Amino acid sequence: MRHLRRRDFLQLTSLTAGAALLGTRLTLAAVSARRPRFVLILMRGALDGLAAVPPYGDRDYAALRGEVALHAPGAAGGALRLDDTFGLHPALGFLAESYQARELIVLHAVATPYRERSHFDGQDLLENGTVRPHALASGWLNRALGQLPPPQPRAAGVALGQNVPLIMRGSAAVTSWSPSRLGAPDEDTLARLTDLYAGDALLAGRLADGLTAATMMAGESPPAEAMASAAAMGPAGAAPQRAAQARYAQLVQAAAGFLREEEGPRVAVFDTSGWDTHANEGAAEGQLASRLRALDEGLALLKRALGPAWNDTAVLLVTEFGRTVAVNGTRGTDHGTASAAFLLGGAVAGGRVLADWPGLAPRALYQGRDLQPTLDLRAPFKGILAEHLGVSARALETEVFPDSAAARPLRGLLRA
Amino acid sequence: MLDATQSAIAANRFGLGARPRELADIGSMPREWLRVQLQGAAPLLSGAQLEDSAHTLARALELRHELREERQAPASPGTPPQLQRVAQLLRPVYVSEAGARFAQAVRSERPFLERLVQFWSNHFAVSVDKPLLAGLAGSFEREAIRPHVLGRFSELLLAVETHPAMLLYLDNHLSVGPHSSLAQRAGARRLGINENLAREILELHTLGVGGGYTQGDVTTFAEVLTGWSLGGGRGRLAAGEPGRFLFRAELHEPGAKLMRNTRYADGGFGQGVAVLNDLARAPATAHFLAGKLARHFVADEPPPALIARLAGAFTASEGDLATVYRTLIDAREAWEAGLAKYKTPNDFITSAYRGLGLPVEEGAAALAPFELLGQRTWQPGSPAGWPDRSADWDGASALLKRIEWADGIGARLGSRCDAQQLAPLLLGANLATPTRTAIAHAASAGQATTLLLAAPEFLRR
Predict the structure, then answer these.
(1) Closest alpha carbon to B371 in A274, A167, A240, A189
(2) Quick check: A204 contacting B, CB < 8 Å?
(3) How far apart are CA B461 and CA B8, in angstroms?
(4) What's the whole-model pTM score?
(5) Which of A275, A386, B269, B304 is the most buried (most CB within 10 A)?
(6) CB A250 within 8 A of CB A223
(7) pLDDT surpasses 50 at B180
(8) Looking at domain A6-171+222-290+300-387, which of 1.10.150, 1.25.40, 2.40.30, 3.40.720 is its CATH number?
(9) What is the ipTM of this complex?
(10) Which of B400, B401, B407, B431 to substitute to test the interface with A, most A CBs within 10 Å?
(11) Residues B157-171: pLDDT tens digits?
(12) How would DSSP label each residue in A322-353?
């Protein structure tokens, strides 16, 4: 059995916390040797962790989940087996392969410290890295970028999209990139705008960062798979889902393009949406299944596009909170508390489910309705930043995650 | 000089961007220019064959019904999937609605009022990424928002929460009380509430998050709202006119309810109306709405004293929105020089069209800039609507997109546009020397136009 029972789990965390004190220098050495890359994917809208990672072996699961319950592994449309308790949603074929290849860690019953049920506050707190929504106007990933050991590229992080999400905002230089369908202005116009913005710190910085990113991407061949699906999709809005998928594929390709660059950013972040499944969520097929399938295909594409750089890459997928354990009156689920998260990549010490599983018995539920959180998401965040990106323990406890002593870094998530 | 600053603020911060003669029209009476715009009902959208929500929705439901029947028959090869057929039906509705809205914003002589329509439409956001909403977002704005922007907030709120677009968007139409007569008849079949609409009314439409409600209040409010539904289903749900609001008593959770320490008697539809009315006059609601208005019109982090004054006006006038707007017009903080707000893509595009006198294209072409610059009309992607702070819009890639688009406009207009003459007419006293010089020294008329649109003063309001 690969996932941990409560006692093993607590032992593991205390052991590795001790080891962490010794490990700093070793970690730094490893980092400079292998040029780590980190991709963070925000799943906005509250992913139903019990659908993505069904605890099919939990005795209460099938009854509580009713018509959105997935069958056990082996049955038609059944979950893809991870261990005796957990499976993956059948639309997550690539993730299941990655698990077998020991490149995927599934984290379950995880949550930020947020305990209300507003998407917008939940996302704000997930991104600002504190215990209160709107407590800081910068994101923890940006603050971590400010702590990376040298050498530093001009922009250590890139947001795939026109604008930078809160998690990447802050004083460390980051840029954003999204595909352009208009031609770039000529160099003379850009030079004049650079002059015109000289007295405007915000615009001057943005223009310089934008041009750097555009130059970096200029050598990239157009993403073939994205183009093929874009051509098939016809006028925008005719098939919104396919259009969204094509855009997603394009962003994934671009993320890989940036991370492959020797002098490029080491960290990429982008959003996915459509996880707010209040009605007609579906089970093995249906709304959520299509979203998960698109996500899974995008991750497979990311691995292919990264090529050898995949071996130095960790991809973290997180959501702001989970959904109700019981199905609501419209065959969907409402806002809940704990959910699942995924850590994927060639750099990941995978093939494990990390869960101090609270169970789904009525008394085990949070406020009688939600999956009880048993792991603070800041613990894996800190573990990844420390062991993968070489951020010092001191910076993690002060700058990056203030007031987070209770969430000790979860170590051992990356390959040694 | 003072007048020149104030007329630019009236046209660009309160309005949707100056048209070439606008600053002269405003002259030395910027507050009066805004107040006059609040007189008389908000104009209805004209010049388009726009259909009402009920009509569109009835057509879409009819098509869904046909497709369901078809599916019983053997599948004919090449038939597009059900969703795509509905999308094809609704796409032209979306295109003409969004185009009409844009055209109205570009030509309006009451741009402050149009901005208010857009503000409330975004406050009560629906998003067309839910397929049926593509056909309803525009008519929702015309039917539920536009007629009420100068009225009482409670009336606006009721119009919104009983509109089919909102009920569908937030999944309330099929929310069923566990003890309702329908649930009783259904027996073992699992029927119950969906708390989406109830939560978002509290969090996003009225009190605001942290405005004093619990998970228990959300659940109770969801029970209160059971039965707020639509006419024209099938079988047992056939009652009512297709596509129109219908209170379905058989879905409603019976009984008195206790919410936010107030008891609401068993009153069917009236129970929900009573809760909405109480929410509309709650101090937390006044504060939340005042904060959003102040953020939209004054600064990303508006002065608390201004928020308090707006909230006070809201409460004292029992939610009379025109009174709140007049308080905003009178507020000293709103007239301070400086360009505190970074334009959203929608603001940027609209102000460019107004300033340069660009004709709004026919059909889908009119929507292309919104797509390119990252703010598709009525597609914020969540019920929170589009964000309203600089950091949400000032990304590096977003700036490059604006520059590329401005470059295309400059190239297209060439010598037909005289940016040197236009710049002071559009920006007034905000036009700074570097921009004036850059435009004067541009290598071509087209480049001058590009520099005007991409200038720091034009990117902000």
Answers:
(1) A240
(2) no
(3) 9
(4) 0.89
(5) A386
(6) yes
(7) yes
(8) 3.40.720
(9) 0.93
(10) B400
(11) 999 999 999 999 999
(12) -BBSS--TTSS--B-S-EEEEEESTTB--SEE
